[in-house]
Known about the structure:
single chain, mainly beta, seven-stranded antiparallel sheet, 1 helix
Amino acid sequence: MKTFKDIIFKQHKLGKGNIQGLLMLDNGIELSIVAGEGMYSTSRKGVRAECTKVEDASSFEVAIIDENLPDDEQQWDVNGWQSRDDINKIIIENS
Length: 95
């Protein structure tokens, strides 16, 4: 079973001050976990503030992308301010 620890974070394509981790589950569901400036997350610098490394984030914004569904059936909502434990629950619920 995959967990938060399996997510590899890199600089988000938005640039410095934002990070993103992608986790593909075995059933074709992908989780996008982000933190940084303007995102629904919290870092050492504050709410919706810059975050350059995962260790500095206490909450994250999570999007669930079901690759099994066509684009017009996707649920594009995001879950804001998710803790590491919350993300582990999201992984379990979507596995």
